[in-house]
Amino acid sequence: MQSARSATARSALRGVYKSSLFTATSSAPTSLGVVLSRRALSSRSSPPPPTSAPITGPRLDTAFSRPIISSVRHVSSSSSSKLAKTPLYDLHLAHGAKMVPFGGFHMPVQYTGLSVGQSHAFTREHSSIFDVSHMVQRIFTGPGASLFLQRITPSGVEVLPPHRSTLSCLLHADGSGGIVDDTIVTRLPGGKLYVVTNAACREKDDVYLDQEIAKWNAEHGDLQVSQEQLHGWGLVALQGPDAEAVLAAALDESAGVDLKKLYFGHSAYARLKLRGMQLSSPLLISRGGYTGEDGFEISIPADETVDVTEALLAAGGPAKVQFAGLGSRDSLRLEAGMCLYGHDLDDTTTPVEAGLSWIIPKERRSADAGFYGADVIAAQLIPKSKGGAGIARRRVGLVIDGAPAREGAEIVSRTEEGKEVVKLGSVTSGCPSPTLGKNIAMGYVCDGFHKAGTEVDVVVRGRPRKAVVTKMPFVPSRYWKGV
Amino acid sequence: MASIARCLRVTRPSGLSALVKSPVSRVCAARAFSATATNAVRKYTKEHEWIDLSADLKTGVIGISEYAAKALGDVVFVELPEEGKRVQAGDAIGAVESVKSAADINAPISCKITQVNLLLEDKPGTINQVPEDDSHGGGWIAKVQVDEVGVKDLEKLMDDQAYKEFTAGEAEEH
After folding, report:
1. What is the CATH number of the domain that holds B53?
2. 3-state secondary structure B61-117
3. Stretch B144-164: mean pLDDT, rounded?
4. Which one, of B85, B75, B131, B129, lies nearest residue B111 by Cα?
5. ipTM exceeding 0.85?
6. Chain A CB within 8 Å of residue B67 CB
7. Is A403–B79 a contact, with Cβ atoms under 8 angstroms apart?
8. How many C-beta atoms lie closer than 10 Å to residue A319's C-beta?
9. Which terms under GO biological process does the entry name (chain B) (predicted)?
């Protein structure tokens, strides 16, 4: 067998549509012998690394999302010696994890006894614990922290109340509106800002943030900002309808935190009950996640991560909570319509093109809002029909008949008698949806083909398959927003 | 596409979990079904397809290996080859997909597709249960007609022992 990417990769190369968006996904048809191995299991069938990728360092680390391709193998193998371990590494192995390199870490992709589909279903029916310690946890401090983040992101950081979070993105300083990385920004008490960025973008983000902080501090003598990373800390996501019950059972009652009042996008500090009457230190618990389910993300000092995770597993018991890996994390987030940087977003994508206009508050939608690319983004926010610049491409959801469409598959106009087939864009993520039993995908299409219900074709293995533009999330989100 | 959900249900209790828990007995079971008993020549490709050739060298059966099926995980979709199509060795003739990955099925030798295993359209999970079973109810992909070119192509393929060593080598690399 060969990676099925080969066909789509080749057809992508044949495509005449050469916008910068597609350079990231069109890939060289190099040797495509399948490597069926532990590495192969990790593969979420994505195209080979672009030969001239717009993103350099970080993409090499995303071996999880690599195809089953021998040409990539040596990249992962040679880097495996340098891979870092999260605090939960041994616990993963003890639970039968299959480990793969991802974002520079040994990460679990799935566990013995549960296939990706089963783990996915378990998360939607009960709850799962995901180790996301590979992600980069950053703390911004200093009198200029909020204003600094308002320069590099389109978010209203100044007005963010303590213990509230917002989805955001780091924007390129060149003013193009392109996204450096997507992130969650949380205001902590005491003027601190907690910013979580992608593991696969670590090196790029570090360079970007160091440069931007230096530039800011040089310009703002009285509004300095500094940043530190929580090196080695654990970050654990508890996701699913049973997540609240599981956490409640582990929560120290004297903490005074009422989970019923900890709504989506809110956070709190609380201690967890550990084995042997011990208590954890106060942990930052944020309600939210990357599955579309109710859930929490818990930031934990390195030396407590194992104890806290075991406490959560014990609090729920195997009927309510299981470990889940990157495999189901990917299919869950796709059903929830959430972007994966390096696939659905890249340095050339603007928030408007990515369908993320909603992360920009009303008061920051003008050209003089003061963040990088504000003029470009403000113009894009107004459609052409209303006198604005609009956008040429838009991220959409697709439901595809017949075969699953994967990253790189071409989206074309519906094949009809006497009509020329036009390339509209490409799929950026796709898989068979375990919840819906349909093939779902997201990708970019030309403006005008982005409305829900628009009929298009997606080319899989050289054949057009009927697809319909579909509103996301594909599976309704179940965030806790109160009753 | 209801078949995806159906398949997930089918394979949930028995399929992959059994495969993962007792890989050794599974391999033996698959062998007992078909390979050694009735077919003198089962050959494997480096891309993890197998082909059985009949004693008269005129017909064959194609499938994917136990090793490949296990590496793919729960198969939720199989794109079957086109009946009647004449293909060269190495041609992509179909695909096997799990939630997380997709892999082409390539023709192990030059041949003509005479019949495809329609069972896999409704029960793609059969690939995980009995990938090397060429009988009714098995996970075979296609039956083919073979000519002299095809028989010659066969020489380049691995026998059972060589394939076992090949996959062991692949596993070691990781």
Report:
1. 2.40.50.100
2. EEEECHHHHHHHCCEEEEECCCCCCEECCCCEEEEEEECCCEEEEECCCCEEEEEEC
3. 95
4. B85
5. no
6. yes
7. yes
8. 9
9. glycine decarboxylation via glycine cleavage system; protein lipoylation
Contact residues on chain A for B171, CB-CB shorter than 8 A? 37-38
Place of tokens 């062991």: B168
Return all residues near A217 (Cβ < 8 A) that are at least 6 apart. A144, A224, A225
Q: Which domain holds residue B49?
A: 2-172
**What is the predicted pLDDT for the residue at A16?**
29
B20-to-A114, B17, B28 alpha-carbon distances in Å: 10, 5, 14
The pLDDT of residue A227 is 97
Q: Are A349 and A52 in contact (CB under 8 A)?
A: no
Helix (H, G, I), strand (E, B) or coil at A128: strand
pLDDT tens column, A52-84: 333 333 322 233 332 322 222 333 334 445 899
Cross-chain residue pair B103–A7, CB shorter than 8 Å: no
Q: What is the pLDDT of residue A426?
A: 98
Closest chain A residue to the Cα of B18, Cα to Cα: A113
Q: Does residue A297 have a known ligand-binding role? A: yes
pLDDT of B9: 30
* SS3 assignment, position B89: coil
Query: What domain count does chain B have?
Result: 1
Q: Which residue has the higher pLDDT, A70 or B95?
A: B95
Structural domain boundaries of chain A? Answer: 84-133+233-334
**Ranges of chain A with pLDDT below 50:** 2-80
pLDDT for the residue numbered B173:
55
In this predicted structure, what is the pLDDT of residue A419?
86
For residues A375 and B15, which has the higher predicted lDDT (pLDDT)?
A375
Number of residues that this document lists for chain B: 174
CB contacts, 8 Å: A6 with chain B:
92, 104
**Separation CA A399–CA A408 (nearest Å):** 16
Output the pLDDT for position B172.
62
Given an 8 Å threshold on Cβ–Cβ distance, is A115 in contact with B74?
yes
B87 CB near a chain A CB, below 8 Å? no
**Chain A / chain B CB contacts < 8 angstroms:** 153
Structurally, what CATH architecture does the domain formed by A84-133+233-334 represent? 2-Layer Sandwich (3.30)
Q: What is the 3-state secondary structure (H, E, C) of A296-317?
A: EEEEECHHHHHHHHHHHHHHHC
Stated as kind and residue range, the H or E segment containing A123 is: helix A116-125
pLDDT at A81: 59
| Partner residue facing B49 (CB), from A1, A67, A113 | A1
Minimal-distance CA residue of chain B relative to A2: B104
Q: How far apart are the first and last CA of chain A?
A: 51
**Average pLDDT over chain B, rounded to an integer:** 81
